[in-house]
Amino acid sequence: IVRNARQQDFIRWAKDQYGVGSLISNRDTLLKIFGQHTQTDRSLHTTDGLINLFNLVAFSAGHTIKQIPFPAILLPCPVTAAGQTPCYVSADPVAEASVYQQFMTPTAAAAPASAAPAKKSRHHGGPSARAAGLSADTGDGKSQAAALGQLGMPVYYPRLIATSSQYCMDTTANCYEPPNPPSVYAGAYPRGYMIHDQSGQPHAAYRMTLVINPGLGEYYGIEGTTWRTPPILNSPNQTRTVHGKRLMLYLNGHHIALVGWRTAQGAYWVSNSLNDVLSNTAMIDIATSLTKAGP
């Protein structure tokens, strides 16, 4: 289920960055990459199969990818004397019928980018934040910023996080995938690193990761980089100014998948979980609460 959501997430972002013209002009390079990094069934081992796949990708440009989470009920995996038994996924028939209707109902494309009027200020951590399922947590945010050390860029952390979530740290057991021990991921949370743009220019970057439900792959995060024009922030669906921040909203259907924000020093964004578990209000409030660490 999580892998499927990750694949759809990749397709959505790739589709937004590649139009039909780019696909056609780069088809040889893209097919080579595709061949080196994928395993396929026999239908894609033929010229006709590859052409059909290429047509699917090309003609999806400009169209909405509809992502409807399956109403999965993850049953426990009991451990017996012989070891762990197989795990199964079930679902309620009524819930299945509901999501089927959602899937079969056409979804209108997101509205074009537009500026919305600024919202009035409100006290963070108050009734509105609680209504969005958020809680104030500046202490852990400051600790994350301190753990990153000197990155050569301003570090922003959220004053508000999802109530049911916690920051991933090297000592956070539910941020690891067994059987790998925590030592394999030493220094992974939070993460400071360098990324390079298309011309090879390096840019400082960092990532703070928060976990809601590791069993369902529900992680969200805060990203920052000195690269002010990363491709992920191209072509926002909407813009909105909240508390002086000009936020860029990126939608997955009617759900906000990412909220971006630029400063004079770099770019920052809040990314939703793969199945968009955070509400639109929560995403905007978390992004609005981003606060600069240090003096």
Question: What secondary-structure arrangement, pairings included, does this model have?
Answer:
Layout: H1 2-17, H2 20-25, H3 27-37, H4 47-60, E1 73-74, E2 79-80, E3 83-84, E4 89-90, H5 93-104, E5 115-119, H6 127-131, E6 134-136, H7 138-148, E7 156-158, E8 160-162, E9 166-167, E10 191-196, E11 202-213, E12 218-225, E13 238-242, E14 245-252, E15 255-262, E16 267-271, H8 280-288, E17 290-292
Brief overview:
The protein has about 300 residues and is of the alpha+beta class.
Helix and strand sequence: HHHHEEEEHEHEHEEEEEEEEEEHE
How helical, in percent, are the residues? 25-40%
How confident is the prediction overall: mean pLDDT?
A: 82
Shape: globular
Termini separation (Å)?
A: 43 Å
Instruction: Please report the number of helical segments.
Output: 8
Q: In terms of structural class, how would the helical and strand content be classed?
A: alpha+beta
Task: Kindly provide the radius of gyration, computed on alpha-carbon positions and rounded to a whole number of angstroms.
Answer: 21 Å
Describe the overall structure.
The chain has 295 residues and is α+β, with helices and mostly antiparallel strands. 28% of the residues lie in helices and 27% in strands. The protein is built from eight helices and 17 strands. The strands form five sheets. Strands 5, 9, 10, 11, 12, 13, 14, 15 and 16 form a nine-stranded mixed sheet that branches. Strands 1-4 form a two-stranded antiparallel ribbon. A hairpin with a 2-residue loop joins strand 2 and strand 3 (83-84). The longest helix has 16 residues, at 2-17. The radius of gyration is 21 Å and the shape is globular. The N and C termini lie far apart (43 Å). Residues 115-121 and 178-186 have low confidence and may be disordered.
